[in-house]
Amino acid sequence: MTMRRAIGLMSGTSLDGVDVALIETDGETVRAVRSRNGLLAPLGPTGYRGYCEEDRALLRRALADAEAVTGRRDRPGCLAAAEELVTRRHAEAVEAFLAGHGLAPADIDVVGFHGQTVTHRPAQALTVQIGDGPALSRRLGIAVVSDLRLADIEAGGQGAPLVPVFHRALAQASGFTDSLGILNVGGVANATLIARDGRMLAFDTGPGNALIDDWMRERTGLALDEDGATAARGRPDEPLLAWLLGHPYFGRRPPKSLDRNWFSHTLAGQLSTEDGAATLTAFTARAVARALEHAHEPPTRWIVAGGGARNGELLRQLDALLAAEITTADAVGWSSAFLEAQAFAYLAVRSLRGLPLTFPSTTGVREAITGGVLARPEAG
Q1: Same domain, yes or no: 281 and 211
Q2: Is 19 annotated as a binding residue?
Q3: Residue 81 class from Cβ within 10 Å (0-12 exposed, 13-18 middle, 19+ buried)?
Q4: pTM over 0.70
Q5: Which domain holds residue 309?
Q6: Is 14 one of the annotated binding-site residues?
Q7: Domain CATH for 51
Q8: Most buried pick, 85, 109, 200, 231, via CB within 10 A?
């Protein structure tokens, strides 16, 4: 099958900026080579365009205004302005990436555009990722696949997580044959559990970085807890943790998914900055440990990606809680920072080929289903 060059774009719930990644794939395998130490070499070049504080402020207002959304095309409050901003910033990110790597639009077959999630309510068959795919396609002069969650939601699935099929492709390319857990810690944390026979189970485990980031911004003005240093100086509030982990979500059988705002950092409001950070970090780690209750085979290895892979205190807690080897995506030749952007490039090619993006064991959809909405520049 012909390999295609695809760019994937990701702007996560942490609201930090736009990740850009180029990979070559046929939608089933990824073009990958091994380095001398046996690890995967990088799948392709990557780039990043950060949001400025004014951008993040608008996106935070959009998250608040999105509480009034009742239909996927609703744009109350500042959502229309935020959508225009998201589209523009993604276009700028791709344009800078192409220029920086000596590439032209004609060199790229497709762009996978996730957009910015502002609300995710699968129980109401509603998920909204702002970002205008056709406008992005016209500006870039490249085909764009967007709205990658829509078909799954409309078919009764959770619409998330979307990346497990890419995780499986990476695991196969790496030669992993034992039971494996892949944990992506973005604003929300999600896990892909891959059994030795290739069966997948995937779901959101609980909060990721979002609560910790919100806490640090409110208490210190910092965007995050660098390396988990603040949490490491504090002590978790055990009664609060027990109450949080008693939430019905954690007892539900997967597939299941969360909205960024299901849990609030304000619950830790009476704690010191250090103890609050410790409590919220422990909440993320212990929610992951609860994922083992649903595993077909407990993973013998966990690979951690996303912003959480840079949080040393979180990794330390995971190592203490999970009876398995804990490593980061970078340590096995994957990309902790750009894994999701790579995944959306991969999913865009699968969408072009009509291959399934989601499965009953990953989103709860009734049958494996493709997805994505294709826009071509000439259509505008």
Answers
A1: yes
A2: yes
A3: middle
A4: yes
A5: 164-332
A6: yes
A7: 3.30.420.40
A8: 231
